[in-house]
Amino acid sequence: MSLPLPLALTTRLAPVAVIAIAGWALSSGPLSAAPTDNNESATKGASASPSAPSTAAASKTFAAAPAPCTSVTAKTIKSLVPGAKTAGKEIPSTDTKARRTCSWNALKGYDYRWLDVSFELSDTDAAAEKTYKERLTEKSGGGVVPGLGDAAYSVVNLTTEDKQQTREGVVLVRASNALLVITYNGSDFESKKAPSTDVINKGAIKAARDAVAALEGGQ
Asked: How far is CA 209 from the centre of its chain?
């Protein structure tokens, strides 16, 4: 059944893009100073040998983002986005090693669901932690998600436009030098009501757990 989507849903990618662009700006560019040699006397007369890896290099756990469209299991996609193609659709990126995003959406009957999973890699753990903390300042009313990455936070918000409700959940996860952003929302076009906070929050966290497992498993 084909129904026109409310403006709130057709434009929902705009705030996600703003968040993504902000994260991109914060996580790119020179993030650490060049190493300096403050111990000339210790190395004077020593034979040439490879330098020890810098702290920044040593802290870069993940060198590339995983394939985002296989980061969430088919079983999870079927349960969270009924009727969607489990293959998803990857959003074009200028640097797939640093940032990759996949999206799934479907309208089944009158029930609409949308899921985005995004991976953003920084040069160091410290840089990713800084970005994570800055993203938290953009959110309010949520809470910490225990046992997910090094740090995780979820928040759910309800919006209403033309009497149509849409409820959206966002989960932010930092795992070493990677930041994951999971966005999940839904609406019922027949009742004009949105799914409950519990349904959206648990769904977003479920997708986040899959995505973290894929990142840590090197998929």
From this structure: 11
Q: Using alpha carbons, select from 139, 166, 167, 164 the residue that is nearest to residue 154.
A: 139
CB 61, CB 115: distance < 8 Å: no
Is the pTM higher than 0.85? The answer reads: no
Token code pair at residue 4:
């026109």
Nearest one of 9, 14, 16 to 183, comparing CA atoms: 16
**Cα 186 to Cα 200: distance, rounded to the nearest angstrom:** 8
Strands lying side by side in the sheet with 151-161 = 89-91, 99-108, 111-121, 178-188, 164-175, 151-161, 143-144
Structural domains in the chain? 61-216 (2.60.120)
Per run of 10 residues, the mean pLDDT along the chain (length 219 residues) is: 47 39 35 37 40 48 93 97 96 93 97 98 95 88 94 97 96 97 97 97 98 87
Phi, psi of 30 (to 5 degrees): -65, 120
**Spatial CB neighbours of 42, under 8 Å, sequence gap ≥ 6:** none
Q: For residue 150, give Cα distances in angstroms to 98, 167, 174.
A: 19, 27, 6
Contact 187, 159 (CB under 8 A): no
